[in-house]
Amino acid sequence: MAYDPASGYRTELPDEVQLIRAEVADVVDLGPSERARLLASACRSGVQLMRLKSAEDRARVLEYRDPLPPESEAALERMRQQYRARRR
Prior knowledge:
This protein is mainly α. The chain is about 65% helix and about 5% strand. It has one domain (about 1-85). A hairpin with a 4-residue loop joins strand 1 and strand 2 (about 10).
């Protein structure tokens, strides 16, 4: 249960929120040095995996970029337009 200050009632969290909280429970309270250690470990694992790939696969993996969600694309376009308008 979560408290909703707007209504003053406790509300049930959506299943997705509960799943995400469960997934990050082990790392949410880590300090910066512990997080850095985990990040470095993940990077080392990624490098090791890349060594196992063919040259073609490595190039494809390194060139790939996650597409932005439509909301982010729209927000970026608004910011670009605002920037251009201020420069005129």
